Amino acid sequence: MSIITQLIHSIPVDPQTGAIAVPIYQTSTFVQDAPGVNKGYDYARSNNPTRETAEKIIAGLEGGAGASAFASGLAAIDAVIKLLKSGDEIIAVDDIYGGAFRLFDKVYKKFGITVNYVDTTDVSTIFHAITPATRLIWLETPTNPTLKISDIEAVAKLAKAHNILLCVDNTFASPILQQPLELGADLVVHSATKYLGGHSDLIAGVVISKTEQLAQEIKFYQNASGAVLSPFDSFLLIRGIETLPLRIRVHNDNAQRLAEFLEQHPLVDKVYYPGLKSHPGHELAKRQSKGFGGIISFTLKEDTTAAATTFVTSTKYFKLAESLGGIKSLVAHPAAMTHKSIPDEKRRAAGVSDSLIRLSVGLEETGDLLEDLRQAFDKLAVQQAAHAATASAASN
Ligand SMILES: *Cc1c(COP(=O)(O)O)cnc(C)c1O
């Protein structure tokens, strides 16, 4: 059976009524026949049928024993860190999602959990960072925004040999392209706000566990801390996931075409896209995933904030916004947006130069998106020519 058929038919018909769409069980509690005797649900923080359906569908997609759905991607990450205790150490990918960095640095550090950030594209770097206190390795692959690729299978082997948990933030790839549990990871997290939801209309997160035991532990923290996904947002998430394989296919195809266009454009310096042969992670990405995703980053020959600002305010279909993974194309300028709080020198050293622009390529017609980029570059070229003329007039 193909993944799309399997996915569509993993969405159950309501046994109560035959409803073909998943009902929204908008209820806080469930009537019991006798104290402790119920139909599998007692209180909606602990369990809700709509949320449970979303969790089962996602567990199936990632090949996990179970999944827990949260009110945001960060709440999902938070639940995984609660598996640890004071004194434990984490080894994390160095260009980790900014919100995860803030959670580790500003919240968990004061509880005695420390994080060592390393370049995870090199497995030996991770090996040398392991100490007797290391309990968790945290990967993102591809990373944001330079799309670095780490070898999940190799890192999983290393983690296993040292009795360390491996968690992969699979937000950028989605389970359609990459299944970390199959490659040996113990846990997967998603910001379901992005590709899983897919329509830029909700904030959600998921943790998927390889084993029943880990799934139970995460479920315990989901209920104990309480940042659960609401019934309505669970419905929206299911509604989004129904078309995930189809959407990902178009995101991929569009992004590949756009990356190839960018690579040969005279105003562009570097293009970061794992689907390009020039990308250092290309061969590895080809091996461990079924496609290269919908996110592209690139820098301009004129590496200035001003040039990037002109570009990102000149596109018509690419809307200027944070976030990614929705049907509408988005453009972002990380130095002035998502990575603004990072000191300039540190940001540039991580490859996020002043002119770096990130595209979340949507589902519009490829030709329209190409034309949109072309006209934004034309505007930039006109502005650069005007500046050059002014500068030469001033020096005359
Ligand atoms: C957006 C994002 C998160 C955080 O998810 P929220 O739903 O915004 O809380 C975590 N990891 C990655 C890679 C993301 O892109």
UniProtKB/TrEMBL annotation:
Gene3D superfamilies per the UniProt record, alphabetical: Aspartate Aminotransferase, domain 1, Type I PLP-dependent aspartate aminotransferase-like (Major domain)
Cofactor (UniProt): pyridoxal 5'-phosphate
Single GO biological process annotation from the record: transsulfuration
CDD domains: CGS_like
PROSITE patterns, alphabetized: CYS_MET_METAB_PP (PS00868)
Entry keyword annotation includes Manganese: no
InterPro entries: Cys/Met-Metab_PyrdxlP-dep_enz (IPR000277), Cys_met_metab_PP (IPR054542), PyrdxlP-dep_Trfase (IPR015424), PyrdxlP-dep_Trfase_major (IPR015421), PyrdxlP-dep_Trfase_small (IPR015422)
Modified residues (N6-(pyridoxal phosphate)lysine): 194
Domain of life assignment: Bacteria
Database matches in Pfam families: Cys_Met_Meta_PP
Homology family: Belongs to the trans-sulfuration enzymes family.
Protein name, as recorded: Cystathionine gamma-synthase
Organism the protein comes from: Chitinophaga jiangningensis
Origin organism lineage: Bacteria, Pseudomonadati, Bacteroidota, Chitinophagia, Chitinophagales
